[in-house]
Amino acid sequence: MDSANPSPNSPPSKKIKLNDALVNLTATEVPAPVPVAAPVASGPRPRQPGVAPIKPEYLLPNEPNSRANVVFDDDAAEQASSKDGDSKNNGKNKKRGQNKNRRLHQGRDTVSLCEFIKLAAEVATPKATPTCPYGAGCKYEHDLSVYVAAKPVDLDGVCPVFSVIGWCPSGLKCRWLGSHFDSINQKLVINDTKRAATKDISSENGRLNGQVLNDLQRKKYVFEKSDEIVKYLDKVIDFNQEKRQATKDSMAQHVEVPIYFAAEKKRLDLRGKYIVSPLTTVGNLPYRRLMRTLGANHTYGEMALSLPLIQGQKSEWALTRSHAEENNAFGVQITAGKHWQAIKATEAISDLVGGGLAEINLNCGCPIDLVYRAGAGSALMDNAGKLARIVRGMSAASGDIPITVKIRTGTKDSNPTAISLANRLINDGQTAAITLHGRSRQQRYSKSADWNYIGEVAKTVKELGQAKVEEDSRAVRPWVVGNGDCYTWEDWHNAVDNHGVDSVMVARGALIKPWIFEEIDSKQYIDKSATERLEYIKQYCNFGLEHWGSDEYGINQTRRFLCEFMSFTHRYVPIGLLEYMPPKMNDRPGNWKGRNELETLLGSNDYKDWVKISEMFLGPVGDGFDFKPKHKSNAF
Ligand SMILES: Cc1cc2nc3c(=O)[nH]c(=O)nc-3n(C[C@H](O)[C@H](O)[C@H](O)COP(=O)(O)O)c2cc1C
């Protein structure tokens, strides 16, 4: 589509079955959509660069706190969501992983129930019912009805987890307990048929058992390959560079470790794939599940730091988890400042994370100060030798799992290094894919991604990669994936058709407009109705409850991460409000109202409205919840 008025033929909104809360809302609060006004005879106003061309009938007067005065600080978003965002703290005493900076906790039960009675309620057959050995002497409550009566009043409706998988892992703590509790027999209800039918499709990979974590924490975990690989690589590097007095003798004493080449591993296929970027905090498992349902077919976990992984930090391992729907098309992303850290983390991930892990990706693009100062993330681009050693080591440690890298144009604007890095990696023959974010570390999100440079890198990778394959059949021509500012189907196809990349990794575009892959696939802009967009939010909530639990803790987690997600979704300006196509997501929108109240609400930049939206699916906010957007938007 070109710069014409939005097509009046945009696909009709799908009919969507909504839950009770939404039906009530739609019935009472949402007026019928305002029909899109016919173009006036004098023709549309000229398009002003940098300003969203919103039709006059949807424009509101500017107000101090309105969206018109907000800039979206994506550097702050990436930085704030980083585990090491606070450089003043020097990395000490930081909480890591998904739960960092959270004050969420499992609410205490008013009545403490005896564990044996709890178990008895969970056991399906009365025959196997455990009994409390302490009998009347037990200090905990034995009467289940007293426990249930003391719980906060159930939320309305049926437990969303139970209704999908036929049982509820949150058990008696579930906030929809009444929907799966048999009060006469004092048992939790299990729908065996549904449970069996959904067992495989609803499972998650990478949930480590306590023993393994314990072994890692106590340094008892046996890394069978890593030590040898590290020793070998140290010798090879010394020997090759002749920096120290490494002799042929010292090499001879050393057992050679097998170095796998990319063609000797599982095949990774990224050509034409709809790829969601690794996204710290927002790219969590429920979000990725939502994206899978909306057309994504390759996803990445949030960046995990190697050291906490090998130290057995549970919250860091949470970042390696994936859903069954991501099987064989999911990459774990790590970063490390030292080769031994990356190698050990890779070995542990390859051994412990299931689900047909498609790749382990090394993040060499992370711009965050603390990561950079530790020699990790984008600092690796300043030390090609170290980067190459890390990739070789990871490749040796990962068995048949391919190793891929994500880089930027370089660390400095004035000195793009991606081409020489790609050259080096291709020469070593162990990198299965190179993703290039077309910005330097220095540049962060200021200025647009440089797609011409991405195109040059793509050309180099293809040419050198092909030459390498001809020279050494153990190598592959690495996939080359472009990244940066892909907000529309036109951006995606332009990147693939005109800049020569095999595919595009989409980050903010997939957060702001989660149905972006549907648009890419159909090569058209889709004017999603507010009810359809609300349905995605409902779906996210249900996935969140399945992942984090339907008890108070799980609901709080789901609500919080939903609000983080909505700190991006609210930026979407519905295309039906625009005078001109194509839409430009970076245009300043002015203050606007939607075609109905729900559409206006979904575009609100007030986080209190995001919390309000969450209440439609997660019930009223309890005492244990507070949310402040981590990346504050600045006033112009
Ligand atoms: C909130 C947020 C979190 C991010 N987290 C990661 C991450 O964990 N790993 C990574 O490689 N890149 C991360 N990035 C960078 C993106 O993956 C991507 O490279 C960048 O946003 C450019 O793509 P875009 O223009 O499509 O947004 C993050 C970006 C944002 C906005």
From TrEMBL:
Keywords: Cytoplasm, Flavoprotein, FMN, Metal-binding, mRNA processing, NAD, NADP, Nucleus, Oxidoreductase, Repeat, tRNA processing, Zinc, Zinc-finger. Its main location: cytoplasm. A zinc finger (C3H1-type) spans 108-145. Its cofactor is FMN. One of its GO terms (biological process) is mRNA processing. It catalyses: 5,6-dihydrouridine(47) in tRNA + NAD(+) = uridine(47) in tRNA + NADH + H(+); 5,6-dihydrouridine(47) in tRNA + NADP(+) = uridine(47) in tRNA + NADPH + H(+); a 5,6-dihydrouridine in mRNA + NAD(+) = a uridine in mRNA + NADH + H(+); a 5,6-dihydrouridine in mRNA + NADP(+) = a uridine in mRNA + NADPH + H(+). One of its GO terms (cellular component) is nucleus. This is tRNA-dihydrouridine(47) synthase [NAD(P)(+)]. It comes from Nadsonia fulvescens var. elongata DSM 6958. The lineage of its organism: Eukaryota, Fungi, Dikarya, Ascomycota, Saccharomycotina.
